[in-house]
Amino acid sequence: MSKSKLTLYHACPSRSSIARWMLEEIGEPYEVELLDLKEGDQRKPSYLAINSMGKVPALKDGDIVITEVAAICCYLADAYPTAKLAPPIGDARRGPYLKWLFFGPSCVEPAMIDKTLGRLDAPRSTVGWGDYETVVDVLKHALADTPYLLGEQFSAADVVIGADIRWGMKFKMLPELPEFVAYAERLGERPALQRQIAKDAALAPKDGH
Question: Is the pTM value of this prediction over 0.85?
């Protein structure tokens, strides 16, 4: 049996589950290299040679290494176009797609962390995400009266933003607005997300710790 050329360096639980969801969406075979973060696998020289930041996820596609969740999702959507998870270059939806793809790590996640840590809003001229209330409002309006961020088409941007919203509501970092709840429910019906959740659940410690 030939070895898959896609390898995900993964830890569970962690944000690398987002990359695993994306891999399930594209439908290509892949292998998982599991790292134990508690044991410090992510700081070992062998892994730092793959991702010098010492964090997960990292993805290898043959000899190509990609890190950062949004970049991994963007890469996979373009490299495996048969899954139709990205508008092609020249499509009018490409601009909004890229905006949402990177809105997650550049705006949503920093705003949620600021809110959770009780940080005061920094001047808007110094932080790229503006402020928490604006980020929530932008997301709310983007998901009003539309199934996905690009309308009827599910895309890699929904993997990134959807994961942020699901995670944010779970840990009370985002309000359970009707728009967010309905969106999360739609995403939860996707077979690829269900497979990712089941596969990662199988990796969870069995002793409850």
Answer: yes
Domains and CATH numbers, the chain: 6-84 (3.40.30.10), 94-193 (1.20.1050.10)
DSSP code at position 126? T
Beta strand spans in 52-147 (E): 58-61, 64-67
Mean pLDDT, range 86-112, rounded to an integer: 96
Cα dihedral 135/136/139/140 (nearest 10)? -150
Residue 47 phi/psi, 5° resolution?
A: -85, -35
CB atoms within 10 A of CB 80: 19
Residues 6+ apart with CB under 8 A from 40: none
Tokens 């019906």, residue located: 189
CA separation for the pair 21, 159 (Å, rounded): 7
